[in-house]
């Protein structure tokens, strides 16, 4: 219920992000074992209006999908986060994330626009590299070895 309640107000234009930290895995099921254990026929993977992937069952159970690409060996885990919230997580069997960060599509567009603005504020990569090198030298008063002597 935690996951569904967390994202119920998200829409296509919302500018929100949520971080779920310190995930602990309680039990991991193959897709078939999950369906058998919870007496389900199908699991539906959907795109939320906020832009992220989730899965839903016929009983309206909800879970997050970790990753944006095709899952080659999907499993569903019952997990608990740092705050004690229990939820389902669909992920690859070889990838057990400890941290999930979910951005709305509007937030992602905003981050992409910001990154493009900052990247295009310099005329060329060479000028940007020179700026970074000069900033580094200013920080250590022209001595590049000084950074190793910081206590």
Quick summary:
The chain is built from 4 helices and 8 strands, in the order αββαββββββαα.
Key traits:
single chain; 151 residues; alpha+beta; 6-stranded mixed β-sheet; two-stranded antiparallel ribbon; 4 helices; 8 strands
What does this structure look like?
- With 151 residues, the protein is α+β, with helices and mostly antiparallel strands.
- Helix content is 29%, strand content 28%.
- The protein is built from four helices and eight strands.
- The protein has a six-stranded mixed β-sheet. A two-stranded antiparallel sheet has the order 1-8.
- It is elongated.
- The model has no long low-confidence stretch (mean pLDDT 78).
List the helices and strands and how they pair.
Layout: H1 2-7, E1 17-20, E2 24-30, H2 31-37, E3 43-47, E4 53-57, E5 62-65, E6 74-80, E7 86-92, E8 100-103, H3 105-120, H4 125-139
Parallel strand pairs: 5-7
Antiparallel strand pairs: 1-8, 2-6, 3-4, 4-5, 6-7
